[in-house]
Amino acid sequence: MSAGPESTHVSSLGMDDSLHQQVLASFPLCDMTEEDLTQNPQFCKLLVTLAQHVDQTGLTVSLKTELDKMFLFQAEQKLQSQRRHWLRSESLHRGLQEMIQDHCVRKHHTTVPPDQTMFFETMEKCLLVAQCVRRLDPSSTTNQDQPSVLGLNAQQVMELMPSEKNVQRMKQSLPRELEKHLKKKCLNLLSYYQPEWENESEGLKNSKLSHLSVQLDKEKKRAESLKETCRENAVLLQRQTQLYLSELTKCIQLLQSLILDHRLKIQTDLDRKKLDYFEGKCELVLQKIKAEMVEIQLDTYTPDSISAHRKIREKLESELKACQVEKQSVDLKLASFEILGKEFETLAEEYCRLRQEIEMKNWALKEFTQYKDK
What we know:
This protein is mainly alpha-helical. Among the domains are: 10-58, no CATH class; 68-138 and 151-210, no CATH class; 340-374. The chain is 84% helix and 0% strand. It has helices at 3-26, 34-39, 41-51, 61-109, 114-136, 154-158, 164-193, 202-210, 212-300, 303-338, 342-373. α1 packs across α3 and α4 (61-109) crosses α5 (114-136). The longest helix has 89 residues, at 212-300.
């Protein structure tokens, strides 16, 4: 009888321990213990209800969502700012390198003034020194104790900079030259984008150049829209192709079932039609053979020869009938003679032999008589 309350107490105690662990895990920043929660069960229930609306830091769900959005927006803004800064620096660096390359190409084809040669040489040296210093100068992400390249440091490389006078002249002319180079690139881009504008005036080109970025942005959006449309059309085409293939497979299966169900009936009708066709063809061939035979006979025999052959045939047929009658009578006589036995057969053979000798002697006598008369 005492086992029931004890088991109930043990199970409730286990449930309370689990609940206390969940509350302590939901509010790690609060200085609470399981003993505090055991002594204040109502406060424990309040914390359980509150845990459904706040996170571990004590912020509400809505506030946490807004803060996450705000932090994400700030991070995105910072990323965009860093990206613009990097793109500005990278485009400027590439523009300067292109200017140096153009100068090297132009120097081999035409004569370049000395001041321009000095300007580009100074700029090239400055770029090379700056690049080397950047490689030698460790940033915050590198180890300060790593060995330097070839035992050099940034200060030693800076000594290779051109003279301060040449650097100042280069810096004074750099904006103008860079602007000229960028304007030339933009005009080339404009001529490539719209070749018919190449023969326009300088002012009109500058006016259209100011709107080129907007037009390129529109073209980019249009191209992205067309690409998305093409992607959607490709997906739609793939789905329609799959649907078409599935429907085609169903049609093929239906045709196969129809062929299997009606093959015997169709084959019987077809065989009967083929039989009728071959019978008609055979009849036609026989008639043609008969016609050819008649034609051959007409070409071979004249009417007189045909009548003569007919008479000969009639005579031969009458003689054949007479011989058949004679044969039947002889057969009857032979049958009657066979009844007499082997003795009569011996006499018949002797009779036949004597008859043959008589015929031979008559023939010899006849021949001898004819020869004697001659």
